[in-house]
Every structure is written in C-alpha cells, then in structure tokens.
# Entry
Amino acid sequence: MEKIKIIDNQVILNFNKQFYSDDAIEMAIRDFSEICEVDETDKGLCLTPKEKTEINLIGLEFYNYVLGVMKNN
# Structure
C-alpha cells in the first residue's frame, strides 16, 4: 500500500517505482499543477493545495489519476 501523509497543509505521497510509471507521475504532476503546488522532496512528492479544499482526498485523487493515466497509455 502506498503512503499518504498530511503535514500542515501538505499532502506527501510516496510511490513504488516498480509499479507506478515515471511518465504517468509526471503527467499527473503537470495536470495537478493547476490546483496544487507540486514539489519533489526527500520526504516524497508534496502537494500543497492553492485553494482551500478537502486535503484528505487530494492524495487519493492523485494516485487514482496516475493509475488512470497508466491504464489509458
């Protein structure tokens, strides 16, 4: 199971690189950049919403988006 951590107003995600493709993750980063600041750190991929939103769902939506991209490619 992948990890989702919420610290302050950031969602921190860690991906199993053996399963998730780098291309799909990069596409998700580009598409989510409209709603979140996205930074790669030593903690993982950090998503910071630009507007007030349900922060608990951002990580799940990101993972689902990556999976959808992988399925469609």
Remarks:
- The helical segments are 22-32, 55-72.
- The chain has a mean pLDDT of 92.
- Strands lie at 3-7, 10-14, 36-41, 44-49.
- The chain has one domain: 3-72.
